[in-house]
Automatic annotation (TrEMBL):
Annotated cofactor note: Binds 1 zinc ion.
Ranges of compositional bias, category Basic and acidic residues: 7-20
PROSITE patterns, A to Z: ATP_CONE
High-level lineage: Bacteria, Bacillati, Actinomycetota, Actinomycetes, Micrococcales
Species, as recorded: Microbacterium invictum
Protein name: Transcriptional repressor NrdR
Amino acid sequence: MHCPFCRHSDSRVIDSRTSDDGLSIRRRRQCPECGGRFSTIETASLNVIKRSGVIEPFSREKVMSGVRKACQGRPVTEGDLAVLAQTVEEAVRQTGASQIDTNEIGLAILGPLRALDEVAFLRFASVYQAFDSLEDFESAIAGLRADHADQPDRLRAGEAEPTR
């Protein structure tokens, strides 16, 4: 790390702290040449390999943008989209890979989106998984219905019966 004051090619780390989101580290540094102090923020790089072969940095905003289209007209807030994008990024980073295919990002989006809004999930899945026919939609809907049938109703889940 070059000193921003004298351009000396070395610096010494004085203090390191993780940021609030835990995805970056703030380091306080000192130049051994001029004694100047400065801070750096370090993040692990995560690159996306697009279908065309182009490699670009991962972007939460791109995840939100893609999902936002599927959520048009649905009761989904920008905050919900931000949480979903963060969840997707955390899932992708947990793989430990520094490069990931767009296909894997799409798969990481499907689960949290399904939990957020099933209609938006169907919209996103229909584009992402390239639904070709009505049967593709019917199959996806059948999967959603099967999951609902497997979930116990509210009373069996431990919620108290409403008082009258």
